[in-house]
Design goal:
two-stranded antiparallel ribbon; 2 helices; about 25% helix; two-stranded antiparallel sheet
Amino acid sequence: MLMTFKLRENALDKLASTIHVDQTARVQEVRRESSPRYYDLIEEFRKISGVAALLDTSFNDKEKPICLSPRDAIQTFYTTGLDALVLENFILEK
């Protein structure tokens, strides 16, 4: 993610929450061959929303280290305002 790309005018409204103030984004390509579950998630989101993109961000609470294990993720989930957490084949909800 070392490069940013200027978004096309027709994509700005659909991707407003994922772009920088200069209308660029750090784009990552997802291929079914290397990440089939993530690819399928993006594809299902596209079917629902018409947008074949998801915002991918670090998972950590303010001023805390990034989650590196399921235990970290569960602890962060229960100590923040998150509504749901997906870990592999499991979904935790508050």
